[in-house]
């Protein structure tokens, strides 16, 4: 696979993660306006969003393995 | 023989791994500040919103999505540099700077002046927590935008390559960290009922 195809694949992954984050944010907003006593739901959604950012955008696994060397 | 032994005793981590570890430790220490602010909000005001406070939920949603969008463009800028696509790097870095600036202005120049009309006052009640949390976050957005501008200008001058782009990686990671903090601040300030 050439470099530009790899780049396109990574960009696609980025869009999928961003789509997931946007969807979770909209669900979070809906929960806030429609559900009373919403703390547990909102906490779960926030943790899911944080996990997506840490794993796919911040590459937290690079701390303990050596992927993404440059 | 001595040189051979010294080579074997050399640390396993390379410079990049140490840089990454250092950045993560820095972000961990920053996290403590944000956790303290978050805990303060819940200790003082519980799990709901105090009486008489009407935060602008729609504005909160719009700026949250804007910050998320800036995270995807930052991700694309870093990925583009890693794969040697300088045009995409510059385009996405510029987009991130613009969205970060708009987020900052939306909070500081739009929301803050309107806050007293929603029952949020700088020196009393929930307003203290609101301004402390959004203020500390906005300060980090400001420093993030400044770093993004420096990296963008360095990139234009050819300072980075697919073999060496730690400056880009560190700045983008910091930007994602700013986004990560907002993931918890946004519901704590706007959404709980």
Give the tags.
heterodimer, A: 70 residues, mainly alpha, 2 helices, 0% strand, B: mainly alpha, 6 helices
Give the topology.
The complex is a heterodimer of chains A (70) and B (193).
Chain A: H1 3-34, H2 39-57
Chain B: H1 2-9, H2 15-45, H3 57-82, H4 86-114, H5 126-156, H6 166-191
Helix pairs in contact in B: 2-5, 2-6, 3-4, 3-6, 4-5, 5-6
Structure description:
The complex is a heterodimer of chains A (70) and B (193). Chain A is mostly helical and 70 residues long. Chain A has a domain at 34-62. Chain A is 73% helix and 0% strand. Chain A has 2 helices and no strands. Chain A has helices at 3-34, 39-57. The longest helix of chain A has 32 residues, at 3-34. Chain A is elongated and about 50 Å long. The model of chain A has no long low-confidence stretch (mean pLDDT 90). With 193 residues, chain B is mostly helical. In chain B, 78% of the residues lie in helices and 0% in strands. Chain B contains 6 helices and no strands. In chain B, helix 3 (57-82) runs antiparallel to helix 6. Chain B is elongated. Classes of the chains: A mainly alpha (70), B mainly alpha (193). Chain A binds chain B through residues 3-4, 6-7, 10-11, 14-15, 17-18, 21-22, 25-26, 28-29, 31-33, 36-39, 42-43, 45-46, 49-50, 53-54, 56-60, 62-63, 66, 68-70, and chain B through 14, 16-17, 20-21, 24, 47, 57, 61, 64-65, 68-69, 71-72, 74-76, 79-80, 82-85, 88, 162-166, 169, 173, 176-177, 179-180, 183-184, 187, 190-193.
